């Protein structure tokens, strides 16, 4: 698939830290409970760390206890979902629709949320912009 934001592998490596590159460009996963955005309750918009596209709003974030930031809904037309059968599991991978970066996975176990979904997103793949437009994390 072609994306609006396209860079060479060298350009991504120059822009991203080694951990960010491993997660965003190689579909890695950061360790649970270590991400700066896991427990934050700051109001604002969550953006893709690689291309700055808006992905999630704080109103859809909830504490799932999984160790990564959880959202019950993405902003319309901002993420791509595709089947992921890696590591002997059947999951649905979530990617940024603007640049194709790996964000995490979505699961149908968001009990008590309006959608029933839990977007389990790597903290390192996001930045957070508060309601005043200030980057507060990421």
TrEMBL record:
All copies of domain MsrB, residue ranges: 9-131
Protein name as annotated: peptide-methionine (R)-S-oxide reductase
Keywords, alphabetical: Metal-binding, Oxidoreductase, Zinc
Family: Belongs to the MsrB Met sulfoxide reductase family.
Molecular functions per Gene Ontology: metal ion binding; peptide-methionine (R)-S-oxide reductase activity
GO cellular component: cytoplasm
One of the Pfam families matching this protein, by short name: SelR
Entry keyword Acetylation: no
């Amino acid at each position: 698939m072609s994306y609006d934001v396209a860079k060479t592998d060298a350009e991504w490596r120059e822009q991203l830290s080694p951990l960010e590159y491993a997660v965003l460009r190689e579909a890695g996963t950061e360790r649970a409970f270590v991400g700066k955005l896991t427990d934050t309750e700051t109001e604002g918009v969550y953006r893709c760390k690689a291309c700055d596209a808006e992905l999630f709003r704080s109103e859809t974030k909830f504490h799932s206890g999984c160790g990564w930031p959880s959202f019950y809904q993405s902003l319309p037309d901002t993420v791509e979902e595709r089947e992921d059968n890696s590591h002997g599991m059947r999951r649905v991978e979530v990617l940024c629709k603007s640049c194709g970066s790996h964000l995490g996975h979505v699961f149908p176990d968001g009990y008590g949320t309006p959608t029933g979904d839990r977007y389990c997103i790597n903290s390192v793949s996001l930045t957070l912009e508060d309601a005043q437009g200030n980057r507060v994390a990421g």
